[in-house]
């Protein structure tokens, strides 16, 4: 039989192990911008696959997917501020995005892949997510 101290130690280790994924994988706030297709990372360092989570990035950066792998990028704090991104695919899909400067939802053509989170199927969805934000 295990002693009382051994059981307490075991329970303590189990609690610590349960919290470990939260400590290691704490995502940083913000959203990733969609980057154009390129062969190296946007910072000019020459390496694309430089992170697997936000914890691998320097302070103030977020691990974001890009066409050449995961790179550390400056996050966008609000999806409603993101520009419309058609993406590299060739579909012609009508979508809506929130125009931060004009403070309204507007149509744009989405190619069907990649893009960013400022992309909505209906006016109601766009207004619910972003309505009332931005400059008047």
UniProtKB/TrEMBL annotation:
<feature type="domain" description="WAP">
    <location>
        <begin position="25"/>
        <end position="76"/>
    </location>
</feature>
<keyword id="KW-0646">Protease inhibitor</keyword>
<dbReference type="InterPro" id="IPR036645">
    <property type="entry name" value="Elafin-like_sf"/>
</dbReference>
<protein>
    <submittedName>
        <fullName>Kunitz-type protease inhibitor 4</fullName>
    </submittedName>
</protein>
<dbReference type="Pfam" id="PF00014">
    <property type="entry name" value="Kunitz_BPTI"/>
</dbReference>
<dbReference type="InterPro" id="IPR002223">
    <property type="entry name" value="Kunitz_BPTI"/>
</dbReference>
<keyword id="KW-1015">Disulfide bond</keyword>
<dbReference type="GO" id="GO:0004867">
    <property type="term" value="F:serine-type endopeptidase inhibitor activity"/>
</dbReference>
<dbReference type="InterPro" id="IPR036880">
    <property type="entry name" value="Kunitz_BPTI_sf"/>
</dbReference>
<dbReference type="GO" id="GO:0044483">
    <property type="term" value="P:venom-mediated perturbation of hemostasis"/>
</dbReference>
<dbReference type="GO" id="GO:0005576">
    <property type="term" value="C:extracellular region"/>
</dbReference>
<feature type="signal peptide">
    <location>
        <begin position="1"/>
        <end position="25"/>
    </location>
</feature>
<dbReference type="InterPro" id="IPR020901">
    <property type="entry name" value="Prtase_inh_Kunz-CS"/>
</dbReference>
<dbReference type="InterPro" id="IPR051388">
    <property type="entry name" value="Serpin_venom_toxin"/>
</dbReference>
<dbReference type="InterPro" id="IPR008197">
    <property type="entry name" value="WAP_dom"/>
</dbReference>
<dbReference type="Pfam" id="PF00095">
    <property type="entry name" value="WAP"/>
</dbReference>
<keyword id="KW-0964">Secreted</keyword>
<keyword id="KW-0732">Signal</keyword>
<feature type="domain" description="BPTI/Kunitz inhibitor">
    <location>
        <begin position="80"/>
        <end position="130"/>
    </location>
</feature>
């Amino acid at each position: 039989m295990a002693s009382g101290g051994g059981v307490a130690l075991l329970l303590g280790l189990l609690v610590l192990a349960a919290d470990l994924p939260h400590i290691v994988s704490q995502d940083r706030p913000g959203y990733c911008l969609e980057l154009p297709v390129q062969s190296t990372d946007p910072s000019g360092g020459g390496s694309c696959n430089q992170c697997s989570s936000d914890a691998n990035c320097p302070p103030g950066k977020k691990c974001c997917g890009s066409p050449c792998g995961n790179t550390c990028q400056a996050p966008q704090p609000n999806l409603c501020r993101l520009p419309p991104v058609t993406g590299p695919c060739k579909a012609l899909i009508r979508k809506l995005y929130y125009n931060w400067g004009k403070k309204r939802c507007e149509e744009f053509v989405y190619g069907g892949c990649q893009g960013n989170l400022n992309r909505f199927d209906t006016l109601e969805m766009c207004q619910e997510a972003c309505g009332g934000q931005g400059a008047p």
